[in-house]
Amino acid sequence: MTPFLIASAVKVFVVFNLIMVGVALLTLAERRICAWMQDRLGPNRVGPQGLFQPAADGLKNFLKEETYPAQADKTLFILAPLISFVPALLTFAVIPFAAPLPTPWGVVPMVVADLPVGFLYILAISSLGVYGIVLAGWSSNNKYALLGGLRASAQMISYEIALGMSTVAVLLLAGNVTLSQVIAQQQQGAWFVISLTLAFLIFMISAFAETNRLPFDLPEAEAELIAGYHIEYSAMKFSMFYIAEYSNMVTASALMATLFFGGWDIPFTHWDDAGEPSVWKTLATLVAFLAKTGFFLFTYIWIRWTLPRFRYDQLMALGWKVLLPLALVYLAVIATAIWYLHEQLGWTYGTPMALALGGVNLVLLVILLWGLDRGRILSGSTAEVA
Amino acid sequence: MAIGIKVLKRPTRETSYLRATLKGMALTFSHILRPKVTMQYPEEKSSKDWTISSRWRGTHRMLTDEQGRAKCVACGLCPQICPANCIKLVPGEDEDGHRYPLIYEIDEFRCVFCGYCQEVCPEEAIHVGVHYENSEYSRDRFVYDLERLCAQTHPVSTLWDPSDPKGE
Predict the structure, then answer these.
(1) A385 vs B12: CB contact, 8 Å cut-off?
(2) What is the spatial distance between Cα A171 and Cα A167, in angstroms, rounded to a whole number?
């Protein structure tokens, strides 16, 4: 029992610090990539290539004055940043980030807590984050903050449904809610992004909305709500919201990598997931995991600096009228396909089954794009004027 | 009556904007790889695209003759024409009858950098300069006396030439 506790404590410490450093670097990456996309250089003064900029920002935030609105509900006002910050970090606990590491005290799985209910835990905890935002909006006693909080709650509840629905397909195929089993299943066949392409698309769009990132950042839409729910916050409490947002991004990216892109699996080889665990395997798979997560983090930033913000009714229409029916229909189709292949033909998950499901997805994708675009597949908005 | 009204072509039916999104993403990504326009100021003060204009009117400079004396003859035209009243001039005269400024001070905080002093000066003594880095630790350092005006080394402004309005 003791080695387990020690190993867990070490893992918690390491993962917490890695995420904090990752979040810090992510704020820098966001600013620099944004600058590059606008033909600028971005912050490059503090340290080599601006690497110490996050430290400078952090120092600044620690030294700034904490302000409290006179009419604010002070308890909740102080509590709100914590409530949004903690769940953002908690979620990462169940995501496996590398192959098991052999130590003198036994093989240690590279996941903070390998919960049997892993995925349900993520859905449960990530929904808690909205409380922080709503309470921040309400306790500030500011109309803009309140509107931001209301928007956040409506948006996150709406997209949670599509998010959950899209992952049901993953769980159907994996036959398990433990994330390490989901990864193991993908290692046997192909990544789930091939067999569940549409689910991935729905998941990605919903995850963008869940993390309140552009084009879905209506809770803080600065054009109409100034800063939304965190308008009254200053100094470190403000940066807690920032850290929460970025850790949510890290978790969502890691989740996309885990559920659809094989987690720490290295593609086209079974060297990493079979045989004796070794330190090199752990390191190589960690790099693979970081690369996948990093790619999705880049996509987050990339999309943010490409797309304008949705109007609020468009956001709701997309969530309820497009993504939710789509997820339901998709779930029905893919469940039938899995049932047919698995029960009638007796296949188990492997490359042939993944490819067969991939074919189904391709057909569905074409139908979807055809239907959405009224006969003009992937056409632009000005391609045809009636 | 044809006023130029630009009518945007908008789709009459719903579209998913998927292609527009992908095009936009391709565009933003291509911009990551393009050369940057940022000029890194303290190290880089001009680039091939931009240099400070030779007509820039910045802090003043008094030109001197071969003996190192100010060219100013204390005629009093510059304090007369100065719209901001920032030039203080007390004229003096030596035993040969040459006039020179006993006190010549310009309050750069009052100055509006119109360049009239340079235009009006018959001796081409006082000039506005092509210079913009003026920070000091105290306000009174911004009253430039004659010695300081003579010691400035930055290039002087060419001002606007009516016969060559575009500066060619």
Answers:
(1) yes
(2) 6
Please check whether residue B40 lies inside any domain of the structure.
Answer: no
Of A303, A374, A383, the CB nearest to B14: A374
Whether this prediction's pTM lies above 0.90 is answered by: no
- Predicted confidence at residue A386, as pLDDT, reads 39
What's the one-letter identity of residue B157?
S
Give the model confidence (pLDDT) of A260-284 as tens digits: 888 787 777 766 666 677 777 788 8
Domain contains B9: no
Higher-scoring residue by pLDDT: A346, A247: A247
- A381 and B25: CB-CB below 8 Å? no
pLDDT tens per residue, range A153-191: 888 888 888 888 888 888 888 878 888 878 877 777 778
Q: Which of residues 119-178 of A touch B (CB under 8 A)?
A: none
Q: Averaged over B154-163, what is the pLDDT? A: 80
A380 at interface of B, judged by CB pairs closer than 8 A: yes
- Asked whether B123 and B72 are in contact (CB, 8 A), the reply is yes
Q: How many distinct structural domains can be found in chain B?
A: 1
Q: Which residues pair with A98 in a beta bridge?
A: A110
Residue B158 lies in a domain: no
ipTM of the complex: 0.73
**Spatial contact of B93 and B99, defined as CB atoms under 8 Å apart:** yes
Residue A372 sits at the chain B interface (C-beta within 8 Å): yes
* CATH code assigned at B127: 3.30.70.3270
Chain B environment of A204 (Cβ under 8 Å) = none
- Contact B27/A378, CB-based, under 8 Å? no
Q: Where are the domains of chain A?
A: 66-372
Tell which of B23, B32, B47 to mutate to test the A interface (max A CBs under 10 Å).
B32
Q: How far is CA A15 from CA A21, A93, A167, A214, in A?
A: 10, 8, 25, 27
Q: How confident is the model at residue A378 (pLDDT cuts 50, 70, 90)?
A: very low
How far apart are the C-alpha atoms of A354 and A360, rounded to whole Å?
10
Which domain, by its residues, includes B90?
Answer: 58-151
